[in-house]
Amino acid sequence: MSHAHSRRCFLEASLVAGAAIATPRNLFATEAPHLSHALASTNLAASAAPKPAFAVTDYHVHLSNTLTIDQALQLGKERGVQIGVVDHPGPGFPINSDADLKKYIDGLRKYPVHVGLQPVYTGWSKGFSKPVLDQLDYVLMDALTLPRPGGGWLAIWQIDTVVDDGEEFMTHYMPFIEQVLTTEPIDIFGWPTFLPVPIARQYAQLWTPQRVDRIIELARARKIAIEINEVAHVPDENFIGRAKRAGLKFTFGTDSRNEHAAHLYYCYQMAQRCGLREEDMFMPKRK
Fold first, then answer.
1. C-alpha dihedral over 184, 65, 72, 230, to 10 degrees?
2. In DSSP terms, which residues pair with 146 in a beta bridge?
């Protein structure tokens, strides 16, 4: 299975299955941040929050065989949402050189979208020159591809990820999050506080105030925005409130490769509950 296929095509199916086996329906609001967009939308439909008064952008849209640029723009138009397109750089993905990156950027500049990049592995930027990287509107990176102590990577978004001990997992997860937030040239931290399915019910216990505040502290130091992720329903209301009080900026993201692009239920709900305003939202380098 290629990186490009496994990274996201497997993701949504994993989250749907994880939600089915790991969470009773009444856990949605407090203990199930890993619910898929498809399942969570059912729960939110009865009390869907309105679209915020400020301009809204989905900064986490992937073009694919099921979502062309024209389709993404049409969905954005129908839903009153601007589109931000990202793709993965590095081995196993199509963007591996300055020439590749320049072609990707130039190809999207003819459309009214923000142009971003979503690295998967740390150290990714060494393969590109700063002048070309500076042509991007933003870089979004998550911490879902966790290095294993003995080598290799743990894809924590997959349904078959094995995690036996939540606290032990956090002793590896937190340092990696810190590495991403302190060493990687990024503008947005994606999927913040996501937990693998086997320990997702422990969200409130594992995300202690100390761990939450550490992420906020590091993001604030480098002015990294926090993604409110639609498909995973992370971070939770507590995290967003603490981050807002610390002065952090936020983005909305669906991580979509299909018709779910610009479909923002959870993001709007969190914006309403946490009182997010235009000044709380991230603005890309190029407006």
1. -50
2. 154
What would you report as the CA-atom Rg of the chain, rounded to the nearest whole angstrom?
18
Give the integer Cα–Cα distance in Å for 233 and 93.
Answer: 26
Average pLDDT, 10 consecutive residues per value, the chain (287 residues):
50 47 33 38 60 97 97 98 97 95 98 98 96 97 94 91 96 98 98 97 98 98 98 97 98 97 98 98 84
pTM of the predicted protein model: 0.88
Note the pLDDT tens digit of each residue in 265-275: 999 999 999 99
- Secondary structure of the chain in HEC code, one letter for each residue: CCHHHHHHHHHHHHHHHHHHHHCCHHHHHHHCCCCCHHHHHHHHHHHCCCCCCCCEEEEEECCECCECHHHHHHHHHHHCEEEEECCCECCCCCECCHHHHHHHHHHHHCCCCEEEECCCCCCHHHHCCHHHHCCCCEEEECCCEEECCCCCEEECCCCCCCCCCHHHHHHHHHHHHHHHHHHCCCCEECCCCCCCHHHHHHHHHHCCHHHHHHHHHHHHHCCCEEEEECCCCECCHHHHHHHHHCCCCEEEECCECCCCCCCCCHHHHHHHHHCCCHHHECCCCCC
Q: Which residue in 41, 62, 59, 44 sits closest to 258, CA to CA?
A: 62
Tokens 């299955």 found at? 17
In whole angstroms, give the CA distance from residue 249 to residue 270: 14
Beta bridge partners of 229: 234, 253
Residues 11-26: tens digit of each pLDDT: 555 454 444 333 332 3
Q: Answer for the pair 23, 200: CB distance below 8 angstroms, yes or no.
A: yes
- In this structure, which topology does domain 3-280 adopt according to CATH? TIM Barrel (3.20.20)
